[in-house]
Write a structure and sequence with these properties.
Elements: H1 6-26, E1 40-42, E2 46-51, E3 66-73, E4 82-88, E5 90-97, E6 108-113, E7 125-131, E8 139-146, E9 158-161, H2 163-173, H3 175-200, H4 206-223, H5 227-233, H6 236-261, H7 268-286, H8 292-316, H9 323-345, H10 354-393, H11 403-412, E10 418-425, H12 428-452, E11 458-460, E12 465-471, H13 475-495, E13 512-518, H14 526-556
Antiparallel strand pairs: 1-9, 2-3, 3-8, 4-7, 4-9, 5-6, 5-8, 10-12, 10-13, 11-12
Helix pairs in contact: 1-6, 3-4, 3-10, 4-6, 7-8, 9-10
Length: 557
């Protein structure tokens, strides 16, 4: 079915992603930010790792719970300040206590993050801001309960300061990454604009659609770990959903893109197989049957297999690709390899995607330039084609359609509704002999202007021969139009303002012989209708040509 096509699914999945983002923005609240002092890192925390802590209120007896307890003595510099740190897939509680370690029953609960969800386990990624009262004393204890074992952290880097200084510090840390993500998002939107304009201009550039969607979703996914995303959403669960589904969308969109740029690449069965796998993993995860970490492991393994398979298929068809696409892919591959080498030999902490992001931005820039180039080439070609068609079907002197245009348009008409008016200029040869070809050209142009003021579709089919093609006109209509044309001819000869340099030459005048005919029973082609119109036109021409010729000679003597 058409709605199950790959392109339809791409559009639907991307729209679903955008809906999630829009909904998350609707449910957010404001976050005040103003400039303040610089934050500092709070050291010397006492940590305690607890597995299956007693009196765990949510998961007792159902699953293994990993909890980190961090304690720090409250100093005078800490009172009234905000302590902050970031967690992934964790529930957080903060207490004011008199002892180090696990809080006692009489501890003052000052902060809580994360509610147990009916769908999925994780409350998402979140940067916490815990305000210490001015009267705080003793110990501040933070309990971090991790959802997944491999997400368990031995400790966290905790910052302290006013809320606004912490906000600005996080925003400053994410500034470059945020700018690159915005650039990626804008590039994706520009590619979609190029695709839309191309469709309107009948330009085939499907890769701009798939790469545009891929760029937008990739930008959204890369933005999820950043504090900028929290600043935008302020909804950790929605952020978690966006991160999850954007991650699952990326391979599908990548397959679409490779199908568009690699000739004869068939992705039907890998695409639908991977889509079914992602649906199954999502159901298992959100129903609690399998944890996020297990589903991601399966997803990563399947992604690796598909990636190897696609590398082999693309390598076989590499020389068939456009040169710009070959160069762009090699450039992107170089950045990916550089990022891997950086991770192995230089650093395993901090932002590990900046090299890939830089390479992808360059790749997008080349793709945008290539898309614009293709669009301009096709638009120029379309313009040239229209010009050639205009020249082929237009009379250069009168700007009316020519005989080829008449035959083209006649084939489109309903024969039973067709009427034809045949017209021929009288005295054209005499005007040419007397006033030269300039006079003859002016007479033809004046005649064309006169005819088009009465009839909608007029064609010059010979030197002094014209045809009007009419639709849905009966004999009475044709007679009224005939009378109107004769009136226009008289008015033009009387005013003479349309004769240009020959307006003062009284013998220079317009005379047109006219014959018309409508469809009659038994007609099988428009040529039969034209034959009767020509016969009527020549009959009129024979009646008036002798008198008009005599008048012309008398005026020129």
């Amino acid at each position: 079915m058409k709605w199950l096509s790959k392109k339809s699914l791409l559009i639907c999945l991307t729209l679903l992603m955008l809906v999630v983002v829009v909904v998350s923005m609707i449910v957010t609240t404001g976050m005040p930010v103003r400039e303040d002092a610089v934050n500092m890192v709070l050291d010397d925390w006492t940590t305690e790792q607890v597995i299956d802590p007693p009196d765990e209120p949510y998961y007792s007896g159902e699953k293994t719970v990993y909890q980190l307890v961090m304690s720090h003595k409250i100093t005078s510099e800490m009172r009234g300040k905000v302590i902050s740190f970031r967690t992934n897939d964790s529930y957080v509680d903060a207490y004011l206590t008199d002892v180090t370690g696990t809080p006692e029953d009489d501890a003052v609960h000052i902060y809580h993050f994360g509610e147990r969800l009916k769908i999925c386990d994780s409350p998402g990624t979140y940067t916490h801001f815990i305000r210490l009262p001015e009267s705080a004393a003793g110990q501040v204890t933070i309990c971090v309960e991790t959802v997944y074992a491999n997400k368990f952290m031995p400790s966290y880097e905790v910052a302290i300061g006013t809320q606004n200084e912490l906000l600005f510090n996080y925003l400053r840390q994410n500034l470059l990454s945020g700018i690159s993500n915005v650039a990626m998002l804008l590039a994706g939107v520009l590619l979609l604009v190029i695709y839309t304009v191309g469709r309107a201009k009948h330009v085939s550039a499907p890769e701009t659609l798939s790469l545009g969607c891929l760029s937008i979703v990739f930008a959204v996914n890369l933005n999820c770990p950043l504090f900028l995303n929290q600043f935008l959403y302020q909804n950790a669960v929605v952020q978690y959903y966006v991160n999850y589904f954007s991650l699952f969308l990326l391979p599908l969109l990548t397959m679409f893109y490779f199908e568009d740029i690699v000739p004869d690449l068939r992705i039907k069965w890998p695409f639908y197989s991977f889509l079914v796998l992602e649906c199954v993993l999502s159901v298992l995860h959100f129903t609690g049957i399998a944890s996020y970490t297990r589903t991601v492991k399966v997803f990563s393994a399947a992604l690796g297999i598909v990636a190897v398979m696609f590398i082999v298929m693309i390598a076989k068809r590499y020389r068939q690709m456009e040169k710009i696409n070959r160069i762009s892919l090699l450039l992107l591959l170089a950045f990916v390899c550089s990022n891997v080498l950086f991770f192995i030999f230089v650093s395993t902490v901090g932002d590990q995607t900046f090299i890939v992001r830089t390479g992808f931005l360059l790749y997008l820039a080349l793709s945008v330039v290539n898309g614009l180039r293709k669009l301009m080439v096709e638009m120029n070609r379309e313009r040239e084609t229209r010009l050639l068609q205009t020249l082929a079907y237009t009379d250069n002197l009168t700007k009316l359609g020519n005989r080829y245009a008449l035959e083209r348009d006649a084939r489109k008409c309903v024969l039973e509704r067709t009427s034809i008016v045949s017209m021929d200029l009288n005295l054209l040869k005499m005007v040419n002999d007397t006033f030269g070809h300039a006079g003859g050209d002016m007479l033809l142009q004046s005649a064309a202007k006169c005819m088009t003021s009465v009839y909608d579709q007029v064609y010059r089919v010979g030197g002094d021969e014209f045809i009007a093609l009419l639709d849905g006109k009966d004999s009475d209509d044709l007679q009224r139009l005939y009378d109107r044309l004769k009136q226009k001819i008289t008015e033009m000869n009387d005013s003479r303002k349309d004769y240009g340099a020959f307006s003062r030459e009284t013998e220079f005048r317009l005379s047109i012989a006219v014959g018309y005919s409508a469809y009659a029973a038994g007609d099988s082609s428009y040529e039969q209708i034209m034959s009767r119109a020509d016969a009527a036109m020549y009959a009129e021409k024979r009646q008036c040509i002798t008198a008009e010729a005599g008048d012309f000679k008398g005026n020129t003597a």
